[in-house]
Predict the structure.
Amino acid sequence: MGAIVFGVIVFIAILAIGYYSDKKRREKMAAVAEQMGMHFIPKDTDKAFLGLMKTFQLGQKGNSRSATNMMKAEAGTLKTLLLDYYYQVGSGKSAQRLNQSVAIFEQDPWNWPQFILRPEHFGDRIKSAFGKDDIDFDDSPVFSKKYFLAGPDEAQLRTFFTAEMRGFFEEHQGWYVETQSNRILLCRQGKRRKPDQMVNFLQEGLLIKDKLEAALG
């Protein structure tokens, strides 16, 4: 009985710590949003933001998905959304829990070539050895080693990802980039920024957005 009671106490303590931590982050994120001139939405009560995430492949991964601490802004035709996004891969002790800060930019008349760009994993290299999925560039060995690039139109992506663009991402490693019609999603998977890092996160996202947008012509 004593062990059961102790286990219950520990469980309640963990929940309390998690609740307090979430509350403090929410308060700090709200303050940062106000400083940035962005509209703050603490909870995705109607699941609208999860619905938006599901239009991207990142939002279809894993389970136990949640979107919180949304920051929204509009400047002209450009819509900007920052949020905390969580999902879990697997279950039990082997579960991998991924928390990340995500930026989504939307603007008409953008019409992005469809692609996913993300850090390359060991499994990707095995697939690539068999000629599957990953688009590599013989003249950019560093880019090809560091990044996995895939999309339905390989020829279009080889044109879009110029040597200059590949060099840019060689200097800015670790990013996950996904496009969809008139939207672009950016994050570093598994990396959630602290509230006082959100301004820098937005600036980094805008830099990448501008670089990609320039390639649209």
In short: The chain has seven helices and eight strands. The chain has one domain: 2-216. Residues 2-216 form one domain. The longest strand covers residues 63-75.
